Each structure stands twice: as structure tokens, then as C-alpha cells.
Task: structure prediction
Amino acid sequence: MSTLTQPRAAWRDRLRAAGLRVTAGRLAALDYLDDHPHSTAAEVLEGVAPALPSLSAQSVHNIVHDLTAVGLLRRVDLPDSDAARYETRTHDNHHHVQCVVCGRIEDVDCVVGHAPCLTPSQTHGMRILEAAVTFRGICPECEARTRDAAQEG
Result:
């Protein structure tokens, strides 16, 4: 049994409220992304394939696009990444920290106050909605491996 933050019944209700049909593919994608945030569409496909072997890559791309369009998913575009990532945490303006060694991604709560939580020096007349920040660093596991390798070398 999955340790979902959104029970499947809640996903059904949210899909209907967004005007989308409840399908096995949509529920599987939401369940997978709830358990594996920051996954790519390819990772979603791989993760749901055992339960839905007939689901195609194009279907998964359509699913994440549709769920993002109605606000049930957030698309995350990280620096130096060719593939968009998706998450179910859509209720706030949070940021991300990414390990430059292994690529691990974690959520970081808003840096200062409420959205957009950072104020640009110039807006060029635009109303700022959010700030997308990716902190880059080295996770503790990679730091330990690097330290151990240096001590052995």
C-alpha cells in the first residue's frame, strides 16, 4: 500500500472538480508523482507500467500536460535538465535544492515570506507571480562518498 499524501478518493474528487474524467492513467500518474515527486514523464511511465502496461509514452505526456494545465501538477524546469519534472505540491510557492553530483532534488520552503517571496530589482512592468529558484549543492551522501574517495586516494 502506498503512503500517499492525497488518498485516491481525493484525487478522484479533484479530477472531477477540475473538469477532467477520472481515468486509470490519471490516477496512476497522480499516485506515482505523490510518492515520487520531481519525476519526469519517462519516469512516470516506467513507474506505472507494471499496473498499466498498455499506457503509452504519448499518453503519459498528455496526462501530465492536462494535469498541469488544471493545476493538479506543477511542472518543474531545472537548470541543466533536458526533461521537465512534475510534482503534486502545487499549493504554495516553494523552491528546490538539487545535488550537482547525483541529481537528487528536494523541496525548499519559500525563502522569504509569501509568493513571490523574492523581489526582482526590475519588473519591466510585469506583475510578478512567483519566483522559481533552484539551489545547487552536494547532498550528504555524495559529500560522504567524495570525502571517503579522497581519503582512500
Q: What stands out?
A: The two ends are 44 Å apart (CA to CA). The chain is about 35% helix and 15% strand.
